[in-house]
Each structure stands twice: as structure tokens, then as C-alpha cells.
Amino acid sequence: MPVQRPFNFSAGPATLPEPVLQQVAAEMLDWGGSGMSVMEMSHRGKEFISIYEQAEADLRELLAVPANFRILFMQGGGLGENAIVPLNLSRGGKVDVAVTGSWSRKSAAEARRYADVQVVAEGSGRNIPGSANTWSLRSDAAYVHVCTNETIDGVEFHELPRIDNGVPLVIDCSSHLLSRPIDWSRVGLAFGGAQKNIGPAGLTLVFVRDDLLGHALDICPSAFNYKTVADNQSMFNTPPTFAIYVAGLVFQWVKQFTYAGLQGLAAMEQRNIDKAALLYTTLDASSLYENRVEADCRSRMNVPFYLKDDALNERFLAEAKAAGLLQLKGHKSVGGMRASIYNAMPLEGVQALVNFLKEFEARHG
Amino acid sequence: MPVQRPFNFSAGPATLPEPVLQQVAAEMLDWGGSGMSVMEMSHRGKEFISIYEQAEADLRELLAVPANFRILFMQGGGLGENAIVPLNLSRGGKVDVAVTGSWSRKSAAEARRYADVQVVAEGSGRNIPGSANTWSLRSDAAYVHVCTNETIDGVEFHELPRIDNGVPLVIDCSSHLLSRPIDWSRVGLAFGGAQKNIGPAGLTLVFVRDDLLGHALDICPSAFNYKTVADNQSMFNTPPTFAIYVAGLVFQWVKQFTYAGLQGLAAMEQRNIDKAALLYTTLDASSLYENRVEADCRSRMNVPFYLKDDALNERFLAEAKAAGLLQLKGHKSVGGMRASIYNAMPLEGVQALVNFLKEFEARHG
Top-level EC class, please (chains A, B) (predicted)? Predict the structure, then answer.
């Protein structure tokens, strides 16, 4: 094992806190004196139930999830939820979608299998298309769908849209979940894959307001029916137990995290703000690199950038890797580079990236 | 960590080979010199792709999966597949189901959302209802569904049914997958959750014959469309990467396993036969314990048994735990006890259970 692990900027599955990985390794053959790995525990045994209940309570506390929201631990990821949400919420009626990038576009396409979908606003991929009161919302829609952080495009809603017509807002918050608070007064349902800020791929978190349960279409698979999942404490089918355990350790880590005189999620958010500012400032000051997203909606989590000379891309990635900066290649659909700087990326990692960006520019700019 | 871990008879998530857990722990912070945990790797990076391809190749070799079958690494478990199979294969037509216990009954109920389902044979929960040529099969059915090992009831098809009318056979083999060979000439599709013989919960394996791809209903979610999953090498959505990695280590472990002069899956099958024989012989010779399944279809993996005096159940479980024999409680729907003796349960574990059964009977019988 290297003394210092490299910094890993993967968009997901993504870097995890080192103390969490150390604890997972230490407990691998014997969790809490049980003589079992968490992977080996029945999901209905008292050991795993205690892990599950602690994780759920910690997550609820961290995000201040109101009592009238259920937290579901599911499978299938964001792409699965693109179907599971309309299967549960659309009632076969109307769904409004604001398109701000690749993920919301995919969500709209998938929902068309089940509902009358209307794109009520469409951004350029580099902006948010106005405030919600300028969108052509339908008052009889079953819900409004927004992706509050576009992982590929790097566009983030720093404030959740306020939907004034009473229609529930559904947010796909996969890539900012647990990086900042959520204003639940504006939300009907939130979902996200774990593999950004929370834990291993294969776990999907869903937060759903009570009144939205119980309206699934008949064609909704039982295993993906929110009411069925909620009524069975996420154990209608065998849940991804090990991923829930790792997520629970991450929740504990966030609760104990301190930064700038703050603790917990507030500390994490402030560090995320500082990390993003450091990186965007460097990119904006450069004449080699370019981030193309409008300043008011730049993602704190996923920072896509382009070298002004594409011919330097391969050299950039090779030299970055040699400098201990991994997985900076941009998504294949948009090219360029992307630095994902989730909760587990320390400030030192962003500083190391910034230093490298400047050195590389000095040599090749 | 105890010197000797207890023996864990959980029906799933279930005990895993100790060398696999040790390797997972050792590689937790740095897989293969990459500086990353497997949990932290992009599923599209060369490191994870190498893990995925090795796992797929090893599984294909172990089970002698023919070239015209695709292996899919999915999410959602057996209960998810109960919907996903008819969404992909039923074409909205007819589905024949042989009911041999709890799981096939659930499969039939779920398939009714999408197809005209007929129960073509129904067992007592303790037997297999005759050979397939006695079932009231429909020649225009889209497929015939069988659960080849009923985890709750302990009923196993030791030979796969032969469907003579040309209709594809679908087998839910969750709880015997990788415990024995599969006769692919009789199968159109096989599926199973990983959490029995293979790895952590949250990974579902699907083996599907080429000609059955591409017929999904329009309402099938993209993330669960077999053709979409196959066309994207199981990476249409982010797969459960860490679970695939652990499964891959288990495949390696099975390949290297030796027993009774055999190696690999043949060795594993022989040990499973021997383990089951040891346990059933003990139960049958006892006047305190009783297994109620007919002899020709007793499961090699899940051995339910009852104490003739129910009042002894709690004492039995407490003394078993004290003797290092864990998770022997039967499924809540049928009561009694259940010893699941999957691949990773050594012969010594079954011997320890047998010794305990005899001692307990001597004290309390």
C-alpha cells in the first residue's frame, strides 16, 4: 500500500473516505464480535437490522429529513429510477421535465414510456433555463422532474426550484446528495445513486413524501413499488446489505467531520464550496483551460473543463496520473476533462490538482 | 477476531469463503497497485473492466455456459426478476409456471401483471409434482417458469425438467447457482441472486439465450431490458461493481477448489452432495428432528427441519449459537429450523452441526 494514496477524481463510483475503507477492512471477517462479515449476515438478523436502523437514523439526521418522508434503500441506480419514478408517481398522466443536461434528458425519454411528458424548459447544457416561474408548467401534471446536478455537464441548481402550482417536485440529486442540505419544503421526492458521495454502486436512495406513496401503476414491479418497499422497511427483497453498511459508515464520518469551525453537513458543504471556488478560480485565470458553464450554476461536485488544444489531452491525462491525480478524463459524450470533487476529496486533493494545472500550463500552455 | 469463526447457516446473505474475505480486506485501500479500492473505481476504467471481464470469463468456464448465452450482471434480486423476466420474455402472452414452493408461487403472482399465467403443476411444498411431461403445458406459452431450488421449502430439482413442446424453460436457480452444473440444453434463461453461493446481496446474475433477447414489452424499464443490458456489457447503468469483484474472487476460489480427487465445480458439487447426505442421514435417524421433504427432491443447499417439540425451539437456537452455529432459525413463513449449507460451508461445519444435533437430542430428546 502506498504511504499516500493518489487523489481519485472519478465521477462515480468515486473516492471514499480513507477511515471508512480502513474500518471496512478491519471488520471484514468479524463485525462487532458477531463472527460474521456484514456480507454474510441475514438481512433479517438483529446484527444487520441494527446497522440498517443506525444508517437510516444518521441519514435522516444529517439531511434533516422530515418525519413525513420515507427513506428507501433500493437498487437500480439513477437509470432505474428514471422508470421507477413515473411507474410510482405519474398515474399515467402528465409529467413536466426541465432539461438542463444529459441526465434530465434521459429521464424525460424514459418517463415517456409511462406518461405524457412535456419538456417545460431546456437549457444549453451550460446554464439553467430561468427560474421555475418562467417554465411552461402544467398545473395538472403529476410531478415536475429536475436533475439538480448534472454529473456530465457540470450544471447545478444551488437553490432548488420553487414550484408554485402545487405540483410535487422530483429531484434527481445523485451527484450532490449529502454534499449540501436539501430544502424539503420544495421537494416531493428525491433520489440518488450512492456511488458519488455515499458508498458503493448498487445502492439507490429514495426520499419520498408520504402522500406520494400508494399510487403506483399496476405494471410497476413489486420490488420497485415505493409503498411496498416502504411498508417492508426496504426489505421486501434482499437489500444491498454491504453497500448499506458502507453508506452507514460514511454517514458517521460526515457527522463527525469538522471544517472551518463547523461540524457535520454544514462543514462538508463549506469545504465543498471552498474546493469548488479554488478549482474554478484557477480554471478562469488560465489561458489553457476552460470551464464553459455559466457562473451561477457551476457544479460544486463535477467540474468539466477543456484544454484549448485538444492535442494535449492524452499528455495531460498521462502526466496527471504520474502526479497521482487519477480518473480526470471527461465523459465520452462531451469529451475534455472532468474533476469530480465529492465529499471524500480533501482540499489537499484539489490543491494538488490546481498545482498540477498550473505546472502543466507553464510547460505546455 | 476469533481464531475460529463460527459456522453461519444463513439462507442468504450467506457465509463466504474465508480466503475471499481476507483478500477483500487486504485489497481494500489499494487494488493491484492502482491506489484505489475497487469501490472507488469508475466502472468504465481499465482496472474495473479487467475485473469484470475476468469474472465473466471465470463464471462462463465454471458453468460451461454456451457461446449463445449472454451473462448479465444486474440488480434487483430474485423478486425483481419475477417482474423483469415477464417484461422481457412474455410478449404479453402466456406463461406457464410449475409451483413447488414459496418462490415459484411468488413468481407466478408477479408475472400476472404482464401475462396470462397458468399454474401447470403444483406440489405440496414437500415434493415435485411429477415430471414435466405430466404437466398441463401450453405449446403457445412464451416460457415455462420453474424454481429449481426452493430456498424456503427445501425442494430441489436435481435434474432440470425437460420441456418437450419447444417452449423455453426459465429457471430461478438463486439458491443452487454455482453449487452444481446446469444442463443448458434444457434452459432458455436462468437467474439468481448472488447472496447464496456467489457474493454480496445486490447482484443478480442472468443467463439468457440469444434468441430470447429483443422482445421486451414497451413498458420494460431500459435499465432492466435484457437486450439493452447485454448490448452494454452490463454497464448501461452503473453496475454493482464491488459485488461483481467479490463474486469474481469467489469464482476463482471455486476454480481452485479440490475435493475427493476432483477440482472446480465438480469438486464443489461432490462436497455439497456429501454435506447434504451427512445432514439428512442424521435428521432421518433422529426421533427429535424431522425433515418433511420427499427424499428424491431434498435440497442440497437449504435443509429445513422441525423439532418434534416446538417448545424446544428457543433453547435449540440459543444452545446452537453458544456452540458457534449461527442463523439456524427457519423462515418465518414455515417456522422450525433451516440449515443452509452453501458452497462456502465446509464439511467441518456440517459435521459440527450434526454433532450438536445429536448432543442436543441426547439432552432433550
Answer: transferase
Cα of A238 to nearest chain B Cα, Å: 7
- Which domains does chain A show, CATH number per domain? 22-254 (3.40.640.10), 258-364 (3.90.1150.10)
Of A24, A29, A326, the CB nearest to B5: A29
Contacts of B1 in chain A (CB under 8 A): 29-30
Helices (H), chain A: 18-26, 46-62, 77-89, 102-111, 226-231, 241-256, 265-285, 313-322, 347-364
Model confidence over B232-277: pLDDT tens digits? 999 999 999 999 999 999 999 999 999 999 999 999 999 999 999 9
B84 touches chain A (CB under 8 A): yes
Contacts of A5 in chain B (CB under 8 A): 29-30, 35-36
Dist CA B37 CA B60 (whole Å): 26
Asked whether the ipTM of the predicted complex exceeds the cut of 0.85, the reply is yes
- From CA B115, how far away is CA A39, in angstroms rounded? 36
Q: d(Cα A163, Cα A169) in Å, to the nearest integer?
A: 7
Write down the pLDDT at residue B365: 76
Per-residue pLDDT reduced to its tens digit, B37-82: 999 999 999 999 999 999 999 999 999 999 999 999 999 999 999 9
| 3-state helix vs strand vs coil in chain B, percent to 5 | 40, 20, 45
Mean pLDDT of chain B: 97
CB A260 within 8 A of CB A267: yes
Q: Is the Cβ–Cβ distance between A148 and A123 less than 8 Å?
A: no
Indicate the pairing of strand A189-193 with strand A169-172.
parallel
Closest to B72 measured CA to CA, from B56, B85, B93, B54: B56
Phi and psi (nearest 5°) for A94? -105, 140
Q: Choosing from B172, B227, B253, B329, which is the catalytic residue?
A: B172
Active site residue A103: yes
In this structure, which long-range contacts are made by residues A179-185, counting pairs with CB atoms below 8 Å and at least 24 apart in sequence? Answer: A179/A268, A179/A269, A179/A272, A179/A300, A179/A301, A179/A342, A179/A343, A180/A265, A180/A268, A180/A269, A180/A272, A180/A300, A181/A63, A181/A64, A181/A265, A181/A266, A181/A269, A182/A63, A183/A159, A184/A64, A184/A65, A184/A66, A184/A69
For testing contact with chain A, the best of B4, B7, B28, B90 (most A CBs within 10 A): B28
Q: Give the other-Cβ count within 10 Å of A263's Cβ.
A: 13
B179: Cβ–Cβ under 8 A, 6 or more apart, which residues? B197, B268, B269, B272, B300, B301, B342, B343
Q: Which B residues, 89 through 148, put their C-beta within 8 Å of a C-beta on chain A?
A: 110, 113-114
C-alpha–C-alpha distance, residues A47 and A226, integer Å: 25
pLDDT digits (tens, 9 = 90+) for A143-186: 999 999 999 999 999 999 999 999 999 999 999 999 999 999 99
